[in-house]
Amino acid sequence: MSDNPSSQEEMPVLSFLMRSLVIDNERQRERKRTVTARLMVFLDDGGVMNDNSIRALQWQRLVSEFFVPLLGGPAEAWTHANRVVADRLFEPVAWRRRVQAAPDYGSFERAYQVEWLQGMCELVGVGTPPEPACQHATSASTVPLRSLS
User: Fold this and answer.
1) Phi and psi at residue 22, in whole multiples of 5°?
2) Are the C-beta atoms of residues 125 and 77 closer than 8 Å to each other?
3) Is the separation of the CB atoms in 116 and 138 below 8 Å?
C-alpha cells in the first residue's frame, strides 16, 4: 500500500469494481448455460385467415394430383377418399383417441398422417406403402399444399 491518501481512497472503489466484474462474469457464464425459449406463434387459419370451403376443394384436387402419379388410382377416387378419410379423422371420438394415445405432438402428427394415407389407399384400392414411406409421402404432399394456405 502506498502512503498516498488518494490511492488509499480509491481502493474501496477499485475493490467494488473488481467484485462487480467477477459477479458479471459469473452471470454471463450462467446465461450462456441457460437455454432460452424461442417465441412460437401458432395461427389458426381455418375459417379465420381463409375460407375453408374453398381451401377444401383446392386441397382435394391437389391431393389427387400428388398421389395419382406416386401411388396410382384415378384422381376422382383420391378426391373422394380424402373427403371420407378426413371426415373420419376429424370425428370427435376418433380425434380424442388419437390425442390421448400420443405421448407428444410429433407422435400425434405421424400417427395422423399415416392413418390419413392408409385410409385413402384402402378406399382408392391401391397398396399402402410401409409406415416410413407413408410418413415421407405425407410430409412431401403437405409441404406444397400448406404453402397455399
Assistant:
1) -65, -45
2) yes
3) yes
Cell of 50: 381463409
Helix (H) or strand (E) holding 86: helix 75-90
Cell of 71: 401411388
The residue ranking higher by pLDDT, 7 or 113, is 113
pTM for this predicted structure: 0.61
**C-beta separation of 136 from 81 below 8 A:** no
Beta-strand runs (E) in the chain: none
CA atoms within 13 A on the CB side of 96: 3
Is residue 8 within 8 A of residue 2, CB to CB? The reply is yes
38-80 confidence digits (pLDDT tens): 777 766 666 777 787 888 888 888 888 888 998 999 999 999 9
- Nearest C-alpha neighbor of 120 from the set 88, 81, 92: 81
